[in-house]
Design goal:
It is built from 17 helices and no strands. The chain is mainly alpha-helical. The radius of gyration is 21 Å and the shape is globular.
């Protein structure tokens, strides 16, 4: 009788094979994140997350590198774009303190919620006007109105949208967020904005947290302080928006199953990673965590999101984007202008 050591473990070999398939892509993403942080360290105006997407796009389109990211590394990069993104969203909650948000005052909170709602609805309408598919329009509206690529990843997960369909929205939100870093500071003086109004404008209209910091810091610490709080208030809205989308999707799936006479598996109303995000917000708001723990969480979040964004960027083929993304780019620029105008109006009311 063979010993227990010689008996095969069910699934053990397939698990090891699966992990082996992921390693090349995950190592590539780790190297890219290190490179993104290096560039950010040399050029602080360029957020590390933006650089992660840029490096991913370069890796996908440069000769030699493209065959690697589309071949052996693809499985690991897709894993990063999907699963590491969710981990990064959970840790994003550690940046949000409910007390900081409440200190803005109820009028400011109502304004910010109004800007997010108008931005979401307006961006979705613009995207559909430019004949973008409903799924793409939904992801673009979510990313532009709340918190960039993180929001896109959360919405894609709760609506069970294919990973490949997140690539274009992430590229658009990164492009427009990067555009804001260069354009908004140039408009501060001609528009006669004070530092606090400029900071509130940045927080209310720029997509990603890193892009907000890069933009607002050009006007000093006062601008940066209010920009971060306004932006994190928008981030806090990620949970209810995604929960509402999840409930809507669940009801639609139930109705479809009833119409077809089938009992399909219902998607969760609120995905586990969104509950994790809410839990991290609650933990941060207690004040129990020492600054060292918050710094560690922020670093880990940047690493996870950086790897995820590199994975998403590495799926962008410039040639395909030029052929299919012209209308999407126009829609994104129109949406960016709309959100900039809405955010500026809110900024005058919040900090004017």
């Amino acid at each position: 009788m063979p010993s227990s050591r010689s008996l095969p473990v069910p699934g053990h070999g397939s698990f090891r094979a699966h992990v082996a398939r992921l390693v090349p892509g995950l190592l590539t993403a780790a190297a890219a994140v290190a490179g993104a942080f290096l560039v950010h360290g040399l050029l602080p105006a360029l957020p590390a997350m933006t650089m992660a997407v840029v490096l991913g796009v370069l890796a996908a389109n440069l000769p030699g590198a493209g065959s690697w990211t589309g071949g052996r590394a693809r499985a690991g990069l897709d894993f990063a774009g999907k699963h590491l993104m969710r981990g990064g969203i959970v840790l994003l909650g550690l940046k949000v303190s409910v007390m900081d948000v409440l200190n803005l005052g109820w009028p400011a909170l109502v304004l910010i919620v109004g800007v997010v709602a108008a931005s979401f609805g307006g961006t979705y309408a613009i995207s559909r006007l430019f004949r973008l598919p409903p799924v793409t329009s939904l992801l673009v509206a979510t990313g532009f109105s709340i918190c960039g690529a993180s929001a896109i990843g959360a919405m894609a997960a709760v609506r069970r949208i294919r990973h490949a369909e997140t690539v274009l929205p992430v590229a658009l939100v990164t492009l427009c967020g990067t555009l804001a870093i260069g354009v908004l500071p140039l408009l501060a003086h001609p528009l006669g904005l004070t530092a606090t109004v400029f900071g509130a404008w940045t927080g209310a209209s720029v997509h990603d947290v890193g892009q907000v910091v890069a933009t607002a810091q050009t006007a000093g610490t006062a601008a940066l302080a209010i920009a971060v709080v306004v932006k994190l208030t928008r981030v806090l809205l990620l949970a209810p928006v995604v929960a509402a989308a999840g409930a809507h999707h669940r009801n639609g799936a139930r109705a479809l199953g009833a119409a077809n006479g089938t009992a399909s598996k219902m998607p969760p109303v609120v995905p586990l990673f969104v509950l994790g995000f809410v839990a991290m917000v609650a933990l941060r708001s207690t004040g129990w965590l020492a600054p060292a723990w918050l710094d560690t969480g922020a670093t880990l979040q940047d690493v996870l999101l950086g790897a995820a964004l590199f994975g998403l960027g590495s799926a962008v083929r410039i040639r395909t984007l030029l052929h299919t993304g012209g209308q999407a780019l126009l829609a994104a620029l129109a949406s960016w202008l709309l959100i900039a105008v809405l955010g500026l109006a809110a900024a005058f009311l919040i900090a004017g």
